[in-house]
Amino acid sequence: MCGQADLLADLLLPQLAILHGEAEVLDALCDRGADVNRPTSDDERPLWLALQKKQEALASVLVKHGCDLDAADEETGQTMLHRAVEEDDAVSAVFLIRQVCSRPPDVVPALLTIMAMPSHFLGCVPSGWRCQRT
Predict the structure, then answer these.
(1) Is the dihedral angle over the CA atoms 124, 56, 45, 68 positive or is it negative?
(2) Separation between Cα atoms, residue 103 and residue 100, nearest integer Å
(3) 2-122 maps to which CATH number?
(4) Helices 56-64 and 90-101 meet at what angle, rounded to 10?
(5) Exposure of 15 in the CB half-sphere (CA atoms within 13 A)
(6) Cα gap 77→75, rounded to integer Å
(7) CA-to-CA distance for 73 and 55, rounded, in angstroms?
(8) At residue 31, does pLDDT exceed 60?
(9) 45 C-beta neighbours (distance < 10 Å), count
(10) d(CA 76, CA 96)
(11) What is the pLDDT of residue 104?
């Protein structure tokens, strides 16, 4: 039980809303100024948590409220897109790429990081992926 209490103590309200799948609560928290980028002590960001929970609706709420799609891990320098590709998480990678591609053309730094990835990371990225407006 102590381990669970420690976990809960480290979570912030947005992370709790994500863990419970509460998109409306998350949206309300964000409307009231909750920090959509603040990581836990383990450097886990709300967006990554939502993506790992396969909660695209929650991830979309965070994006709507301006979460940083290009945030990098302090230790490794990896963005969430790097991490998704490295972990063979195609669903998260596609979500992140779609969000980046929906930005104005002059604001695409995360997509440019794909070009700098080692080729073994790119093995899981389909060659037909490209940005296009939908």
Answers:
(1) positive
(2) 6
(3) 1.25.40.20
(4) 30
(5) 19
(6) 6
(7) 21
(8) yes
(9) 21
(10) 19
(11) 60
Residues 6+ positions from 105 with CB-CB distance below 8 Å? none
Task: Give the Å distances, CA to CA, from 45 to 15, 117, 124.
Answer: 8, 21, 24
Tokens of 46: 């709300």
Its pTM stands at 0.71
Average pLDDT over the chain, rounded to whole?
76
- The pLDDT confidence band at residue 72, using thresholds 50, 70 and 90, is confident
SS3 82: helix
Is the pLDDT score of 134 beyond 50? no
Calpha distance 18→109 (Å, rounded):
26
Locate 64 and state its tokens: 């709507």
The span from the CA of 23 to the CA of 10, in Å, is: 20
